[in-house]
Amino acid sequence: MTRKLIHVAAAVIRNDAGEIFIAKRSDDKHQGGLWEFPGGKVEAGEPVKQALARELDEELGIQVLDCRPLIQIPHHYSDKSVLLDVFEVGTFSGEPYGREGQPVKWVSNTELVSYEFPEANRPIIDACLLPSTLAITPFNTKPDELLSFAESAVAKGAGGIVLRFSGLSDQSETLSAEVEVACRSLIGYCHEKSIFLSLNTSVSIANHLAADAIHLSSERLKSLSQRSDFAGRWLSVSCHNAAELKIAEEKGSNFVFLSPVTETTSHPDEESLGWESFSALLTEVKQPVYALGGVGPDDVNQAQIFGAQGIAAISAWLEE
Ligand SMILES: Nc1nc2c([nH]c(=O)n2[C@@H]2O[C@H](COP(=O)(O)OP(=O)(O)OP(=O)(O)O)[C@@H](O)[C@H]2O)c(=O)[nH]1
Ligand SMILES: [Mg+2]
């Protein structure tokens, strides 16, 4: 579709309790009656952050003190096309209220999913729920070492764990008793600590373990005939170029890893993208993207400036 995108600045406003401020669109508006992230159209020649600040003052009576890019979503409705340019606002002055008479609410992450938003907002909800850092287990991790890897990564700030190791993540469709016990124990640990957990494995094993999230290589994604084959909430895919990003989206992934961003010792032969190409690839993508390859927790801000949800890493979590 070649229709011109209407540039819209929208805000995920968080308070100290981690709740998010949402508003209800009036019935007579485009996508009326649904809930929204406050914001509005960017005027001609107006810098987007200025538009965001203006809209949040007009609609909620707050002054933005600091914000960072969260996600950009190009979306085509039947009647118009929008580019939702979403920022996370963590610092503001004033107390937000419905300055235009619109119903408003602070909601927790768990409550967020029960509100009805416009179709274009689905990836914003996913971006709100996902952590900014993921720790991937080294492939040679033994089943009895998984928990200590996870505990150590979490202690260093990891918001989620991706289990990828021999015995779970190779092409086999079966698990040894030892691997199954280890996975179930990790599922229990992450559930208890409210830590995001994804399994790099086959769809049948992930379903067998009742996993909430599965991570597939672009190669393995080919064996997923439809999204509903995986019963869990989250599907993510490893991508390296525009073609793989497109297929992941068509197959219904919620988020992707894009790699290698910089040179890595684990894959010295692979040509790295660099941040500029990484960011350029993101313009066509409407789902959260983790930077992977030669990055670690210290690169989160950098990754987010270039449009990423955050970083995923293996070895960076092992450093002392
Ligand atoms: N603010 C906002 N707009 C959204 C969201 N999701 C979404 O599809 N949109 C679409 O983005 C477009 C612009 O938003 P808007 O109606 O807030 O624009 P505005 O504040 O300038 O309103 P106005 O035209 O009444 O002055 C609308 O077509 C709306 O449907 C969202 O979460 N927040
Ligand atoms: Mg608005």
UniProtKB/TrEMBL annotation:
GO molecular function, one term: 8-oxo-GDP phosphatase activity
Cofactor(s) essential for the protein: Mg(2+)
Domain of life of the source: Bacteria
EC number: 3.6.1.55
Protein family membership: Belongs to the Nudix hydrolase family.
Annotated NCBIfam families: mutt, PRK08999.1
Name of the protein in question: 8-oxo-dGTP diphosphatase
